[in-house]
Amino acid sequence: MAERLIVIGGDAAGMSAAAQARRRRGTDDLEIVAFERGHFTSYSACGIPYWISGLVTDREQLVTRSPRTHREDFGIDVRLRHEVVGIDLVRREVVVHDLSGGVEVRERFDTLMYAAGAVPKKPAWARTDAAGVFGVQTLDDGSALRGWLDADPQPRRAVVVGGGYIGVEMAEALVRRGLSVTLIERGEQPMSTVDPDMARLVTAAMRGLGVDIRTGVQVTSLSERDGRVCEVVTDHGSIPTDLVILGLGVSPNTELAAAAGLPLGPTGGIRVDRRMRVSGVPGVWAAGDCVETLHKVSGLPVHVPLGTHANKQGRVAGINIGGGYATFGGVIGTAVVKVCDLEVGRTGLREREARMAGFEFVSVIVESTSRAGYYPGARQMTVKLIAERPSGRLLGAQIVGWSEAAKRIDTLAVALWNEMTVDDMTALDLGYAPPYAPVWDPVLVAARKAVDALAR
Ligand SMILES: Cc1cc2nc3c(=O)[nH]c(=O)nc-3n(C[C@H](O)[C@H](O)[C@H](O)COP(=O)(O)OP(=O)(O)OC[C@H]3O[C@@H](n4cnc5c(N)ncnc54)[C@H](O)[C@@H]3O)c2cc1C
C-alpha cells in the first residue's frame, strides 16, 4: 500500500511541499491528499491589493495552479471546501469537515504536512456582524471585498486600520479605485518595519496621494446602521465610513496544532528544525506562516509571515518528504513594498531590534539618486545602514526611494547574509551606467559613510 501524505492548507507552503514530494515519489509510492477550506489552491495573496485596485483585471490571474492542475498534472487529490478540524496523532488520522456537504470524516495519514498559514489579528472591537468589515488574508477574503466594492450602493469612503505593509498596500489600492481613504495607525508612523526616520518618508508620500493618515490613534469600536458599518470610533473622535479594512497583522494559525500537542515556540509559531520537521513529532512537517524560524542576525526565533519564506520552506519540506535532503537556513528580514510610486526595502535589523539583540552599532543615512543626476528620470533615494561597532559588520539596511530603490535592497541582503563589513562593501564591483546608477551607487556611498562613522 502506498504511503499516505495529508496536507492541511492548499496554498504556498502546503502545495509547494506536495508538488516537491510528488516530483520525487510517484503515485504508486505516495498518495497525496490536500485539504483546503477555501475555494482556491496555490493563489497569490500578495496579488490581492493589485486585483482590488484594478491593476490586475482577473482574479484567475492570481491562481498559479488550480485543483484540476494539481490533480491531473501532479496526481494530488485536492479537496476544496474541506476544513481539517482535528488531528489525532495516536491514531494518525485527521478529522475533516466537508463545508459543502456538512459531513465529518476521519482520514488516515502516515505523514502530515501542516501548512495552515496565519490568522488575522482581530481585537474585540473588530468582532462584529456588521457588513462591510473585511480582512484580506485569503483570496476568498479578497473576493468578498471585491463584491462589496462592486455592489450597489458603491462605497465612497474607506477606513484602513493598521499601517503595516498590507494596510498600506490596501490604502493605495482603494485610493486608486477612487475612494476617499483614512488610514489609522496607533503607532508613531505607518510601516513600522522600517525605522521612524525612514517611515516618515512613507507617510509623506501617502499623504501626497491623498490618504488621510492618522497616527497615535486607537480604534475603540465600530458603529453600524441597518446592519452595515457606518463609523469607526477612536480615542480621537469618529470617522464616518462605508467600509473597514483590518490590517492589524497576523498570528500563526496553530489552534489545531496546539490542540494536537505540536510544540509551539516563544513567538507562537510551530517549532520546526532546519528540515521543516516538527520538533520531536515523527512524520509531521510544517512550513509557512504557521511556523517560527531563526533570524540569522539576531539569533532569535521570529515569526515572519511572508510568501517568499512559505514557498521556500514548503519546497524544503517536500524535498525531505520525498526522500531527498534540503534545509531552510533562516531569514534576515528582507522585505520590499510599493507605496504609491514610492519603493521601500529593508533587510536585517532595525535600530530597535539591533539594540534588543544587544549589538553596539552606528547608523548612517545618505541621500542619493537612482541614476546619474543628469540622466532623465533620476529620482531621489534615501539609504540607511546599521553597522556593528567596532567590527563594521552590516546589521541592517533600509531604502526608501522613488524608482529602482526596492530591488537595490537585494544587494544589501546578500552582503548581510554573507556577514560582510561595510568596509568590504565599499569595494563591491557593482554595475554602473548613467541610466542605472550614479557613478557611486547609493549602496557604496552609504557604506563609505558608515566606515567614516565607525572611525569617529
Ligand atoms: C494582502 C497580502 C499581501 C501580501 N504581500 C506579500 C508580498 O508582497 N510578499 C511576500 O513575501 N508575502 C506577502 N504576503 C504574505 C504571503 O501571502 C503569505 O506569507 C503566504 O501566503 C503564506 O503561505 P502559507 O501557505 O503559509 O499560508 P496561506 O497562504 O495563508 O495558506 C494557508 C491555507 O490554509 C488554509 N487553511 C487554514 N486552516 C485550514 C484548515 N484547518 N483546514 C483546511 N485548510 C485550512 C487557508 O484557507 C489557506 O488557504 C501577503 C499577504 C497578504 C494577505
TrEMBL record:
Residues 4-298 form the FAD/NAD(P)-binding domain. The keyword Oxidoreductase applies. It comes from the Bacteria. Keywords: FAD, Flavoprotein, Oxidoreductase, Redox-active center. SUPFAM superfamilies: FAD/NAD(P)-binding domain (SSF51905), FAD/NAD-linked reductases, dimerisation (C-terminal) domain (SSF55424). Its cofactor is FAD. Residues 335-438 form the Pyridine nucleotide-disulphide oxidoreductase dimerisation domain. This is Flavoprotein oxidoreductase. It comes from Micromonospora lutea. The lineage of its organism: Bacteria, Bacillati, Actinomycetota, Actinomycetes, Micromonosporales.
